[in-house]
C-alpha cells in the first residue's frame, strides 16, 4: 500500500527516532492512513495511549522475569490492554460490513499467541509514536 506523504513523513520520523527498530511499520502505516481517512483523532489518541501502556507493561513483565504475585497482576493488566488495543484496531480497520481486512484479522484480531505477540510488537511502534508526540 502506498502511503500519503503525511503518513510517510510520520513513518520516517518514527524510524529515525527508533534507530530503525520499528517492528510493524507497514501495518502501522495502514492503521494511520485509515484513521486519517476517517478523521477520527479521538480514536487515534486512544490507540496511541493503549499501545504505549501495553508496551510499558510488557517491558515491565519482561524485566521482572519469572512468575510471582506482582507479575500475575501485571499479566492481567497486560491482557486488558491487549483487548483494548485489539478493539481499537478492529474499530479502525472494519469496513462498512463490519469486516476488517483478513491480514489484520489473522495478524492482530484472533485470540492466539501469535496475535498477542504481534499486538505487543505494534505497541512498541505506538509507544515510539507517543514519545514523538511528547
In short:
This protein has helices spanning 5-18, 25-38, 41-64, 69-93, 102-109, 113-133. It has 134 residues and is mainly alpha-helical.
Description:
The chain is built from 6 helices and no strands. It is mainly alpha-helical and 134 residues long. The longest helix is centred in the middle third of the chain and has 25 residues, at 69-93. The radius of gyration is 15 Å and the shape is globular. The protein starts with a helix and ends with a helix.
**Rg (CA only):** 15 Å
Tally of strands: 0
Portion in helices:
over 70%
Which runs of at least 5 residues are low in confidence (pLDDT < 50)?
none
Distance between the termini: 28 Å
Total DSSP helices: 6
The assigned structural class equals mainly alpha
Order of helices and strands: HHHHHH
Whole-number mean pLDDT = 93
Largest sheet: none
Strand fraction: under 5%
Form type: globular
Kindly list the characteristics that best describe this protein:
single chain; 134 residues; mainly alpha; 79% helix
Helix and strand arrangement:
Layout: H1 5-18, H2 25-38, H3 41-64, H4 69-93, H5 102-109, H6 113-133
Helix pairs in contact: 1-2, 1-6, 3-4, 3-6, 4-5, 5-6
Amino acid at each position: 500500500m502506498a502511503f500519503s506523504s503525511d503518513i510517510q513523513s510520520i513513518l520516517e520520523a518514527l524510524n529515525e527516532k527508533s534507530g530503525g527498530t520499528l517492528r510493524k511499520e507497514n501495518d502501522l502505516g495502514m492503521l494511520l492512513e485509515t484513521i486519517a481517512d476517517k478523521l477520527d483523532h479521538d480514536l487515534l489518541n486512544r490507540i496511541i495511549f493503549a499501545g504505549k501502556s501495553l508496551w510499558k507493561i510488557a517491558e515491565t513483565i519482561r524485566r521482572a522475569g519469572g512468575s510471582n504475585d506482582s507479575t500475575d497482576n501485571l499479566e492481567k493488566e497486560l491482557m486488558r490492554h491487549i483487548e483494548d488495543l485489539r478493539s481499537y484496531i478492529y474499530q479502525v480497520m472494519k469496513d462498512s460490513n463490519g469486516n476488517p481486512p483478513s491480514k489484520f484479522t489473522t495478524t492482530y484480531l484472533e485470540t492466539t499467541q501469535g496475535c498477542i505477540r504481534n499486538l505487543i510488537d505494534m505497541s512498541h511502534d505506538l509507544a515510539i509514536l507517543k514519545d514523538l508526540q511528547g
